[in-house]
Design goal:
Structural class: alpha/beta
Strand order of the largest sheet: 2-1-3-4-5
Distance between the termini: 85 Å
Number of strands: 22
Shape: elongated
Mean pLDDT: 81
Helix content: 40-55%
């Protein structure tokens, strides 16, 4: 076997990335050669190259197909390692990007930023893999040479035949030893008889100490976990057509442990071009998968840290206004004008905090949703006046709405908020004025368009907001949905607008797609599943315009709240509205009151409470005791309470925290005026 040069080709054309990578490799004694273009990289490929390091964004252009063709034409022994430095993704990688990485073959994917130790470890792994490939090449060449010599020997030269047979046996044993040393097992399926020859390491990976007497594709599939079996079956079915097998899946070993394996192989064809065999190698990649999972967890924790820091910063600003104002009020309570001004400032800050909380809940998909089936065109047209005030006189707002658009099942208030967020972003992207187009269309989304998003294929309604503003750079676009990421000046945006839009769309069973080009504008597409129900039209209610209602004589509220401060505020608000108040601090106390004979006209309960029963479950039990009882729930965060479906099934009215006295009065009026 010839000596392998420890050389890695590097294609990282942006900035000084390539020079930095060269220095990192030099520290472990590996030579790096910098390439400026895909063409130069292609021309540098050869048997003396141990690996390639490329940045994901450099894998484009007219020379890409030529490079991919080189990888496809590698010798059977060769699978050149490629380390791809990927850009951090906001969601799942696109189908085209994943397909490109698959075509490169032996890819080690590292998401940036990458520290030096990780890159060095990946480079050393690539070098070890390449050395093993050259060992396999040498052994295969020796095997072919021995076989050729054996065919050329005269049948009468029994001694020479025996000698060469032994050499061939030794070569096979050496190959088996090399594969075993690399943690690989080899296999050879006879597709005609559905039997297999394989090394002991192959069966050991499946948890067997000794070779089984019988093995075939059915036995292989029998070990595959149910979640992966359909994909693996499809890979085996397509292998004769593609000429190769390349799968990664989870298996349940004979000892009960679950492991990740990778199987790579090629298909052999008979004289009639019919597939007769499939042979390849098998590897246990559990450790690699665990390393990748740990890396993704570290990225997740970094994102959580960014989110926590952003929330603390914004809330501390708001609390400064509230605490400072209240401090000055308590110091000088005898100055009514000053007290009123400071109280108004504190109320404004509190409302900003309320909006920030709702944006966070929308991003996390935990906001209190009140979905209904509606005609999106009608909502958009009813929203026209508010939208025009939001964008200002310098912006022309136009509509292109499909009159046959299907109904959708969403929370109308959240949809209006999402559209308003997009309109404000478009307005800010056109400081000199311009046109914003809002459109609606029916679309059909195929399986390949939604598979990586966790959505169902079928009919969708797409709502688009399009502007001709500054647009996004690709680097900026990749972070668009991240919380607290903003391109606006300090104080001009919270960085939660698009995060809220994304969270709402996902909560509604859809998703968001952004198309943007610097200098040409941005189009944001909101996809929502088509609803087969008729629109309810309830979003057009004008109940907020009705006068404030106070309690009728003797009307009694059963107030269920576990937080003492919230409880005190609620009692004071209810008593100001002339209601009699019965207090319960948990669901069990409330049920005790309801079992008695005391007059209770309506139960006003928090949703999230300790004690094992939430507000929705309490409402169900309360109506079993008193079928005519009116119920009003309140919460700022539903948590897991909505997952039991009581909220949606029973359509219980909900007052979102924080609330003012007038909002409480309106919700009580609506609840008391309706049936249970």
């Amino acid at each position: 076997m010839g000596c392998v040069r420890e050389t890695i080709l590097i294609l990282a054309p942006r900035g000084r990335d390539a020079e930095v990578i060269v220095r990192v490799l030099q520290k472990i004694g590996v030579a790096g050669v910098i390439c400026q273009t895909l063409e130069e990289l292609h021309d540098g490929l050869g048997d003396d190259v141990a690996g390639v390091i490329v940045t994901e964004e450099s894998l484009s252009g007219s020379e890409l197909d030529r490079l991919l063709d080189w990888f496809m034409r590698q010798s059977a022994w060769s699978d050149l390692p490629v380390i791809v430095l990927a850009t951090k993704q906001a969601g799942r990688r696109s189908h085209s990007a994943s397909a490109l990485l698959q075509r490169l073959g032996n890819v080690i994917l590292l998401e940036r930023p990458v520290n030096a130790e990780t890159l060095q470890s990946a480079a050393q792994s690539a070098l070890r893999a390449r050395r093993r490939q050259y060992q396999a090449k040498s052994l295969l060449e020796e095997q072919r040479r021995a076989a050729a010599e054996l065919r050329a020997l005269n049948d009468h030269l029994e001694q020479r035949v025996e000698q060469r047979t032994n050499e061939l046996s030794d070569a096979r044993e050496t190959l088996s030893f090399a594969l075993d040393s690399a943690g690989m097992g080899s296999w050879d399926f006879d597709l005609m008889s559905n039997t297999a020859r394989r090394t002991a390491k192959h069966d050991q990976i499946f948890g067997y100490e000794e070779l089984l007497p019988c093995w075939g594709i059915p036995q292989f599939l029998g070990h595959v976990m149910n979640e992966d079996r359909e994909t693996v079956e499809r890979a085996f079915e397509r292998a004769p057509e593609l000429g190769a097998l390349d799968i990664e899946c989870r298996i349940r070993r004979a000892d009960g442990r679950i492991s990740w394996i990778a199987a790579k192989g090629r298909v052999g064809y008979g004289p009639d071009k019919h597939p007769v065999r499939m042979a390849g190698v098998l590897m246990d990649i559990t450790q690699r998968k665990q390393t990748e999972a740990a890396f993704h967890q570290a990225q997740k924790m970094e994102a959580i840290g960014q989110l926590t820091g952003g929330v603390a910063h914004d809330f501390n600003n708001l609390l400064t206004v509230i605490v400072g104002g209240l401090d000055m009020v308590t110091r000088h309570p005898d100055q009514p004008d000053r007290v009123a001004r400071l109280a108004q400032a504190a109320m404004t800050a509190a409302r900003r905090g309320e909006k920030l909380t709702q944006q966070l809940l929308a991003f996390s998909r935990r906001q209190m949703l009140r979905p209904e089936t509606l005609n999106p065109n009608r909502l958009l047209l009813d929203f026209d006046a508010l939208a025009k005030r939001a964008v200002g006189d310098a912006i022309t707002l136009t509509f292109d709405l499909d009159p046959g658009v299907h109904p959708i099942h969403v929370d109308p208030t959240q949809l209006e908020s999402a559209i308003l967020n997009l309109l404000v972003n478009s307005r800010d992207a056109m400081p000199s004025g311009g046109t914003i187009l809002i459109s609606s269309r029916n679309v059909h989304r195929a399986t390949d368009a939604v598979a990586d998003k966790g959505l169902n294929p079928g009919g969708y309604v797409v709502l688009c907001v399009r502007d001709h503003g500054t647009g996004f750079e690709p680097k900026t676009l990749a972070h668009a949905f991240e919380p607290f990421f903003t391109t606006k000046e300090v104080g001009k945006g919270s960085g939660l607008g698009l995060a809220q839009v994304y969270g709402f769309a996902r909560s509604a069973g859809g998703d968001v797609v952004i198309e943007s080009e610097p200098g040409k504008g941005t189009t944001v597409k909101l996809f929502f599943p088509r609803s087969n129900e008729a629109p309810s039209g309830r979003h057009a209610t004008t109940s907020a315009q009705l006068p404030l209602r106070k309690a009728a004589a003797g009307e009694t509220v059963l107030l269920v709240e576990d937080d003492e401060q919230v409880l005190s505020m609620a009692i004071e608000s209810l008593e100001e509205l002339h209601y009699k108040v019965v207090v319960a601090r948990n669901a069990h106390e409330a049920l005790d009151y309801l079992r008695g004979a005391r007059r209770i006209d309506i139960m006003f309960s928090d949703v999230v409470m300790p004690g094992g029963m939430n507000g929705a479950q309490l409402a169900f039990e309360a109506r079993r005791l008193r079928p005519e009882l009116k119920v009003l729930l309140t919460s700022g965060y539903v948590g897991d309470a909505a997952e039991g479906s009581q909220l949606s099934e029973r359509d219980l009215p909900v007052l979102t925290k924080p609330y003012r006295r007038d909002e409480l009065a309106e919700k009580l009026r609506i609840a008391l005026g309706s049936g249970p």
